[in-house]
TrEMBL record:
Gene3D superfamilies referenced in this protein's UniProt entry, alphabetically: TolB, C-terminal domain (2.120.10.30)
Highest taxon above the source species: Bacteria
A UniProt-annotated Pfam family: SGL
Database matches in InterPro entries: 6-blade_b-propeller_TolB-like (IPR011042), SGL (IPR013658), SMP-30/CGR1_Lactonase (IPR051262)
Taxon lineage: Bacteria, Pseudomonadati, Pseudomonadota, Gammaproteobacteria, Alteromonadales
Protein known as: Phage head-tail adapter protein
Region forming the signal peptide: 1-24
Molecular function, one GO term: hydrolase activity
Keyword Signal included in the entry's annotation: yes
Length: 349
């Protein structure tokens, strides 16, 4: 049985307090650690698939920032329940010279799609795309001057993570979560800790991986969860009535090289985590048990193997996983970027 972290002793208020040192979470392992299958092979205009959202018609929308080929535009693809792929839209540049880099995405209850356009803190922004069928009929800017990564829509609010806050001078990497009203338009952020829309920030202890908050998700009760990629930690955040974060609780601590990226809940409040660094997938149960569901050596993804998972989503009886397959270096199993470009799935029992 997995050792449960002593959560009651790990709550810390945000006002400058740090969490106590804890050992890495003990992890159970599934019987079959290579359970993934091929859900979809992607076209040449999506070499680096990233985030998912379930569209109003029940299909999956997939963002393609295409960092592997800057000659390509930022694209949105549509995936049917049986893995058929079609082009949904090219993300508008709105007068900027360089292409859009769509990462986190989420639909609201009216069918509008919010897109984190990750262009760096100077030109990055959150877009609202309004569709008529598969055609974009309007594109609006919610906010600019940020570099969004993960994105969630919840009760009329848009929440985004930013991996780094380069304007914040500190010995460690600072990252943050911003919160915007869906009705906001053309807000200009300073990308500093003085921004009114910044609701939470933290420092990443592991300076071997200088990236912080990445994955973000809400459970059934509306509680906010986030993952620190550099420290491979998952937190539950406490918010006051005004939406400001007042506390954080450490729920899981995995080895640093795990590099937890995207996170997503199922209907039973199990939290699934993409282990970007080591081609792994984990599940955190509501009672604190962490189970490794998948563990793959370096591969090309051709048979549906997990190949640098960036994001995941529960879709029917499947856990759908995007294979980013781009980053390499110390502590990363992926050795090169290559075809095929793929989305994998794991059957959920």
């Amino acid at each position: 049985m997995t050792k449960l972290l002593p959560n009651a002793g790990l709550i810390a208020l945000i006002a400058g307090l740090s969490l106590p040192s804890v050992d890495a979470t003990e992890v159970e392992k599934a019987t079959n650690l290579q359970p993934a299958k091929l859900f979809a092979e992607l076209p040449a205009n999506c070499p680096t698939p990233d985030a998912f959202a379930i569209a109003p018609n029940g299909s999956l929308t997939l963002s393609c920032p295409n960092f592997a080929n800057n000659k390509l535009q930022g694209e949105l693809l549509s995936l049917s329940p049986n893995g058929e792929v079609s082009h949904l839209a090219t993300v508008p540049t709105l007068g900027l010279k360089k292409k859009a880099n769509p990462m986190g995405i989420a639909y609201d209850e009216h069918g509008a799609l919010y897109v984190g356009d990750s262009r760096g803190p100077k030109f990055g922004r959150i877009l609202k795309l309004t569709f008529d069928g598969n055609d974009i009929v309007n594109t609006e800017v919610i906010a600019s001057g940020i570099n969004p990564n993960g994105l969630r829509y919840h009760q009329g609010q848009i929440y985004i993570t930013q991996l780094q806050m380069p304007k914040v001078k500190s010995a460690k990497t600072t990252s943050a979560i911003y919160r915007f009203n869906a009705s906001d338009r053309n807000l200009a952020m300073t990308n500093t800790l003085t921004d009114a829309q910044l609701i939470f920030h933290t420092e990443t202890d592991n300076q071997g991986i200088k990236f912080g908050l990445d994955g973000i998700a809400f459970n059934k009760a509306g509680e906010l969860f986030t993952a620190d990629l550099g420290d491979s930690e998952v937190y539950r955040l406490t918010m006051d009535k005004d939406g400001k974060v007042t506390g954080k609780e450490l729920l899981a601590k995995l080895p640093n090289d795990t590099r937890i990226d995207g996170i997503a809940f199922d209907g039973d409040d199990n939290l699934y985590m993409a282990g970007f660094g080591l081609n792994q997938i984990f599940k955190l149960s509501p009672d604190g048990v962490v189970t490794m569901l998948a563990d793959y050596a370096d591969n090309d993804g051709s048979n549906g193997q997990i190949d640098q998972p960036a994001d995941l989503i529960v879709y029917g009886d499947k856990l759908i996983i995007s294979n980013f397959d781009l980053m390499k270096g110390k502590g990363i199993r992926n050795s090169k970027h290559s075809k095929p470009y793929t989305v994998s799935y794991i059957e959920l029992n």
